[in-house]
Design brief:
This is Spermatogenesis associated 24. One of its GO terms (molecular function) is DNA binding. By secondary structure, the chain is an all-alpha fold. It is built from two helices and no strands.
């Protein structure tokens, strides 16, 4: 090994010893740096674990809320479906009532149309109905004016068909 410039050969044993000691110091410092990096990594890892635990706690809380809300939503859905079914049932009943009233009204219209057909002579083969007083209702307008719910009557003293007034 050649002696570096500026060094004397006389103390070459002490130089090698200094080199060895310097190398040992460098190796121990590198080992300390490596250990320090490991400690820093472990601290960062521990910090990450704490953050992960907090986030897991938040996640569990949120999942609990989702479960509670989904149960509430199911209850509300069932209540809505029940109310909707009730409304549909009522609509069906009202529709049925409406159809019955329309049928009843159409029956009365047909009866009235037949009556007017008899009165106006539209049905020549059928006899013309005559009022209880014995007059054709179309020929006596005065009777139509006096006619009440009980029917047309000639005598004012009668209330209803054939009953004397009290």
């Amino acid at each position: 090994m050649a002696t570096p410039l500026g060094w004397s050969k006389a103390g070459s044993g002490s130089v090698c010893l200094a080199f060895d000691q310097l190398r040992d110091v460098i190796e121990s410092q590198e080992e300390l740096i490596h250990q320090l990096r490991n400690v820093e990594e472990k601290a960062a890892h521990a910090k990450t674990k704490v953050l992960l635990a907090k986030e897991e706690e938040k996640l569990q809380f949120a999942l609990g809320e989702v479960e509670v809300l989904s149960k509430q939503l199911k209850k509300e859905k069932l209540a809505f479906e029940k109310a909707l079914s009730s409304v549909k049932s009522k609509v069906l009943q009202e529709s049925s009532k409406k159809d019955q009233l329309i049928t009843k009204c159409n029956g009365r219209r047909e009866a009235r149309a037949l009556h007017h057909g008899y009165v106006n002579g539209l049905f020549p083969n059928h006899p013309v109905p005559v009022s209880k007083a014995g007059f054709h209702s179309n020929t006596c307008p005065q009777l139509r004016k006096q006619a009440g719910p009980g029917g047309p009557h000639l005598r004012k003293g009668l209330k209803g068909p054939g009953r004397p007034r009290k």
